[in-house]
Design brief:
With 250 residues, the protein is an alpha/beta fold. 44% of the residues lie in helices and 15% in strands. The protein contains 9 helices and 7 strands; from the N terminus they run βαβαβαβαβααβαααβ. A 7-stranded parallel beta sheet has the order 3-2-1-4-5-6-7, sandwiched between helices. α1 links the parallel β1 (6-9) and β2 (30-35). It starts with 5 loop residues before the first strand and ends with a strand. The structure holds NADP nicotinamide-adenine-dinucleotide phosphate. NADP nicotinamide-adenine-dinucleotide phosphate is lined by residues 10-11, 13-17, 34-38, 41, 62-64, 89-92, 113, 143, 145, 189, 191-192, 194-196, 199.
Length: 250
């Protein structure tokens, strides 16, 4: 394998995460493509990267499970022996519901995956990248959502609140590790055309919402990936604690 920097993308098998993996490999990163259940999709991303001359591995792991997070980072250590970047991208929505219809189990799953999972993955990345522990520094990009500021009423306020937590976490962690060689930023995608909407029971959501978006169309996963790659890159050496809207003006 080449000696390029190493990036772990949680939820790298589909949607925004897959686009980030492909774009990162093009930019010279070696990529660990995490997935939860869809091995074929992760293998397809790895195959596309390798076909283009890049290096990648697929790594299973549910970020809602501490044991899986430990195993995922151990697999990255074993394959590459270093870590230079983390994209906390894995995230879920629930079916559209009012708050009085949401079960405790739903809320606990939402926050375990979207919030605790991201914080725990960031902690493992900090252990490997921080100059405090002999690391060479690195970059973390958290995938938030425009929902963090819109609130998603009558759709999924739990999801919106989980992304609000990601915004706050991004600011705090950026300041906590600013002298340790690690930059931490977030992206707030707007309505992006991926399978997440179908997983929330609204397969046509991206198309249906187009008239409500100032630019009158959903975004693509590749447009989000371009912003992620900027924040990971040496073009952003003075950017930390930033939250960038990639939302077509929404
Ligand atoms: P997606 O198309 O549904 O893909 C989700 C990805 O995350 C898949 O690779 C999936 O793996 C993985 N994943 C799901 N649960 C996981 C878990 N517990 N552990 C590890 N991986 C897990 O989603 P997307 O639209 O690309 O969304 C990616 C991120 O962007 C999410 O954080 C989402 O909240 C955020 N976002 C999306 C939009 C949008 O409009 N699409 C807007 C704002 C923010 P498997 O293939 O194994 O299932």
């Amino acid at each position: 394998m080449s000696a390029g920097p190493v990036l772990l993308v949680t939820g790298g098998s589909r949607g925004i995460g897959a686009a980030v993996c492909v774009a990162a490999a093009k930019a010279g990163w070696r990529v660990a493509v995490n997935y939860a259940t869809n091995r074929d999709a992760a293998d397809a991303v790895v195959g596309a990267i390798e076909a283009a001359g890049g290096s990648a591995i697929a790594v299973q792991g549910d970020v809602g499970s501490e044991a899986d997070i430990q195993a995922m980072f151990a697999a990255v250590d074993a394959a590459f022996g270093r870590l230079d970047g983390l994209v906390n991208n894995a995230g879920i929505v629930g079916p559209t519901a009012r708050i009085d219809e949401m079960s405790v189990e739903r809320l606990e799953r939402m926050f375990r995956i979207n919030v605790t999972g991201s914080i725990r993955c960031a902690a493992e990345a900090v252990r490997r990248m921080s100059t405090r522990y002999g690391g060479k520094g690195g970059a973390i990009v958290n995938i938030s959502s425009a929902a963090a500021v819109l609130g998603s009423p009558a759709q999924y306020v739990d999801y919106a609140a989980s992304k609000g937590a990601i915004d706050t976490f991004t600011i705090g962690l950026a300041r906590e590790v600013a002298t340790e060689g690690i930059r931490v930023n977030a992206i707030r995608p707007g309505v992006i055309d991926t399978e997440i909407h179908a997983s929330g029971g609204l397969p046509d959501r991206a198309r249906d919402l187009a008239p409500t978006i100032p630019v009158q169309r959903p975004g693509t996963a590749e447009e989000v990936a371009d912003a992620v790659l900027y924040l990971l890159s040496d073009k952003a050496t003075y950017v930390t604690g930033a939250i960038l809207n990639v939302s077509g003006g929404r």
